[in-house]
Amino acid sequence: MTADKDQEVDHGQDAAGGLAAYESDLRRAERKVAGEIDPGLRAVVVAVGVLVAMLSMVLPHTGTASGIEVLTFAPDADAERVTITSEVFVYLLTIFGIGVSAFALLTRRWLLAWIALCGNAVACVAGMLAWWSRNTPGVGGIEPPSGVGIGLIIGWLAVLVLTFHWARVVWARSTYHLALEEQRRKEAATRDAVARSLQLKPDRDA
């Protein structure tokens, strides 16, 4: 009888150990999945948005000054009296609209997608201010010699599209995270109940 009880105790300990190993594997898999994104068909839209943002950099943002010339403080940009808002927008467009967005799309990392979302959202505001500054007199009532260029318009529309789709990707992943956490809590509660029942069984038999 004692031998049977010892065997049941050992069996309960082995089961608990197996459940602990299963929980460890589950947590590792969950962390791996939680750090990745699956944009699906949105990946195509984001890729097109990145390409459009790159195209806008070679088109005139105001007058004859292209986005690249605004980015590099070229003489044409100085001649067009490019304001700080336009410069900020071009930098945000280059860093987040092109660089971080492309890197997040290639690596499928959730953190990079979140950074791309935040950067593009700020770029949306900067683009609106850049557009406004091209139609507003500056210090001393001096108006810019040229208005909004096609490059600025296309670049602003590109970051609007990127912001929308990165928001949908990040939101979907965040919802999935919550579902995973809820499922993990339920499975942990079930495993704890099974482990307690295995541990209490020898005592009831005694």
Automatic annotation (TrEMBL):
The chain crosses the membrane at residues 40-59, 88-106, 111-132, 147-167. It comes from the Bacteria. This is Transmembrane protein. It comes from Gordonia aquimaris. Keywords: Membrane, Transmembrane, Transmembrane helix.
